[in-house]
Amino acid sequence: QVQLVESGGGLVQAGGSLRLSCAASGSTFSFYLMAWYRQAPGKQRELVASISASGGSENYVDSVKGRFTISRDNGKNTMYLQMNSLKPEDTAVYYCNSPTGRFAWGQGTQVTVSP
Q: Are 26 and 5 in contact (CB under 8 A)?
C-alpha cells in the first residue's frame, strides 16, 4: 500500500512562492495519474492540478493556471507543486493523491498566504 506524505507548506506573504513535495512509499507510484488537492476552511476539497503517470501531461484548475506548476520525479517517487504569485485565496491544506482513488489520504500540508 502506497503511503503519501506532503511537506513544504508554510506562511508566506501574497506574491510569494512555495514548493510543495509529495513523497510516496512503494513502487507503484509511477503507474498512476496523480494530483494535488486543497481544502480551505469550510469548503470542499478541490482538485488543483493533475499530472499523468509519465509526467507528460498536466492539467490545472483555472484559478491557478499560470501560477502553479505540477511535476513529478518517478525515480524518486516524489511529486511537486511549485506555487508562485500566491494569493490569500490559496490558503488551504494541500494534499496529494491519485484521482483513481487508489491511495489513502495523507495528513496534508498547510499553506497560509497573508495579504
A: no
Residue with the three cell numbers 500500500: 1
Q: How many helices (H) and strands (E) does the chain have?
A: 0, 10
Set of cell numbers at residue 113: 498566504
Grid coordinates in use for 59? 492539467
Q: What is the pLDDT along the chain (115 residues), one digit of tens a residue?
A: 789 999 999 999 999 999 999 999 977 888 999 999 999 999 999 999 999 999 999 999 999 999 999 999 999 999 999 999 999 999 999 999 999 988 999 999 999 999 9
Beta strand 109-114 pairing with 10-13: parallel
Q: Are 37 and 47 in contact (CB under 8 A)?
A: yes
